[in-house]
Each structure stands twice: as structure tokens, then as C-alpha cells.
Amino acid sequence: MGFNIAIDGPAGAGKSTIARMIAAKKGYIYVDTGAMYRAMALYLIRENVSPEQIDEKCQGADITIGYENGEQVVYLNGENVNAYIRTEEVGRMASVSSPNPRVRKKLTQLQQKLAAEADVVMDGRDIGTCVLPDAQVKVYLTADSHERALRRYKELTAKGESCDLETIEKDIIERDRQDMTREISPLKQAADAVLIDSSHMTVEEVADAIITLCGGCQWK
After folding, report:
1. What DSSP string runs through 52-74?
2. What sign for the dihedral angle of Cα 156, 161, 164, 168?
3. Span 31-118: which CATH code?
4. Is the CATH number 3.40.50.300 carried by domain 1-28+121-220?
5. How far apart are CA 129 and CA 182, in angstroms?
6. How far does CA 9 lie from the centroid of its chain?
7. Residue 48: φ, ψ to 5°
8. pLDDT, tens digit, for every residue of 49-105?
9. In a 3-state reduction of DSSP, which class is residue 160?
10. Rounded to two decimals, what is the model's pTM?
11. In the chain, ranges of CATH 3.40.50.300 domains
């Protein structure tokens, strides 16, 4: 088994940013679970799968993550599909297929296989509770809803998009409710996960805190 770091938490807590930073500094693989679900969606599109066929057909997809020339690459049955998984069509199929229990089970197996063979950092909603229950380091990363909304507001306004902070916060609170009450793999803190509240922490401070949990390892 590789060295596994599992980071769970609500939307806007900074999970992906932190996970990427730790992976880059440690030389680990950052497992972009969202990209894996998109790769599955691409596979289903290519197979012309109807919603009724998803259960059966999803078993034919082999998805993993690696690096080429320093860039993270998603492989679908051995093919680099980075150029194809960010389209609107793939996004729509991912929305349809990702809640499917058989799809989730298949991707969980693939993620566990990757984690067994390499040192990984993985973030999501159910990594420490379902995907990597034996991870050496588990973190539940959160921040108060106002701070998470403010981060999103700044991100959108920096892109020139018009938005309302209060509306963003309401949306975040509702998403939290949905994630925490969903039937399959709800968002919750694993019993052995360390709680980190990033409300008043910098990205570097959070990353340092998680590295300390790894046993005081130095950055590679």
C-alpha cells in the first residue's frame, strides 16, 4: 500500500488546492476524483450507453491517473483523455452517471487500486469514510460558510462575473445540507480524521498542518 492522504470536507473549504499543493511538494499523485468521473462519462458516451445500460456498461472502463512531462493525465483504457473530459456533453453525462451506485462502486475500486500502488493525495466528500478508510492520514477540512462564500465571490469577481455574496452563501449552505444528507456516501468526518478549520488560515498554513500529521516529513 502506498502512503495515502485523505482530505474530506464541504464545498469551498480549499480541499483541491491543498491536495494539489501537498502532492506537488511531496511528489505524490493527486487523485482528481472529479476527473475520473468525467472519464467514466466520456466512456459511456463513446459506448452510446443509455441510462438503463449504465450499470452493465460502466464495468468496461479502466481509469487511472499519472503524469506526463509534469502534467497530470487521466487515462481511459490506456488513452490520455485530458483533451476530451471538460466538454459540456461530458459534464452532462457525468451529472447523470455519477449518482449511479454501480458507477460509484467501480470508480471507488479504481481509486483504491491506484492508492494501493502509489503514494496519493485524494480529496472529496467520502474519501476517509468510504474510499480510503485505511489512509495513514485523514483530514476533515472545513471553513465557516461565510468565509467559503467570500472565497467563491472573490474568485468569480476576479473573472469579471457579476455575483451576490449572500446568494452564494445560501447556495453553499444548501449544498452542505444535500451532501450531508444524501443516501449514498454522505459527507461526514471520519471518526479518526483530524478536523482543520481553514477559516483564518492561509493555504500554506493548512498544507504545513497536514504535512505535520504525516510525521513531520520535510517537503520533497
Report:
1. GGHHHHGGG--EEEEEETTEEEE
2. negative
3. 3.40.50.300
4. yes
5. 14
6. 10
7. 55, 45
8. 998 899 999 999 999 998 888 788 999 999 999 999 988 899 889 988 988 999 999
9. coil
10. 0.82
11. 1-28+121-220, 31-118
